[in-house]
Amino acid sequence: MLARYLLAVVLATLSASIAFAAEPTELAKGKIADASLEKLAPKSGFITDAKTFAKLWKAWRADEAVPEIDFSKDLVLVGLADGPNLVMFQPKLQDDGDLKYVVASTRMAGPGFGYRLVKISRKGVKTVNGQSIEEGIVQGTITIPDSSTLEEGQTIEVKLFEFDPLLADVSAKLIDEKVLADFQHETGKATDIPFAVGADYEIQKERRYYITVYALQNGDRTHIGEIEGKRGLNVVLQNGDRSPVHLIFRQLKK
Fold it and tell me: Residue of 77, 90, 150, 245 with fewest CB within 10 Å of its CB?
């Protein structure tokens, strides 16, 4: 089953860093007996494009017209609960631009699932529950450990590559790249930086994908990002899985 996007019991821990409660506009709520339709909900817990939203709406509320939403200004949050339950959540925008929400629900046993869809302004929002709202087939977070030192003016380079596993003598193709410059890090405190690459690109089933992540200083690589801190190729999108990835920086030897 789809993760519930954090447990309701942590609600009390959020208040310390809350900037203000974001004002959502409710689009729909309900219960669906067919549990197979739950898979249409985004794993991230939010929707940032009209195509994805329309597909979900038509499957969950087929007898109603799809609401018009300007996704350049707004996004849609999706809350879920197992069983025929009512879903409740209150989004809260943190002072660092992270929009947090925790799902609570009634506790009725039974088939299917309950859901709630709300529209909320993108203004001031950088991430939702720590995940970047930028579009991309690969999304995730880069962690700069508390022991790492990055100098002022350094940038982070993220590249997405595609290759054919049956053609060993053909170089990988660069699909997309991003340079992250607007971040701050202080030694002694870990820093998490969200990223997204590969917007508007369709995954090719017969291809394989990996990403490279480096911290750069004057063109030189000072740190390398590795998925969960494990050395090796940063393979992504295995079997089409778009689950967020977590990379941890490791300082390179000079």
Answer: 90
Domains of the chain and any CATH numbers:
8-128 (no CATH), 134-251 (2.60.40)
pTM for the whole thing?
A: 0.57
- The two most distant CA atoms of the chain are separated, in Å, by 63
* Span 47-62, pLDDT tens digits: 988 888 999 999 999 9
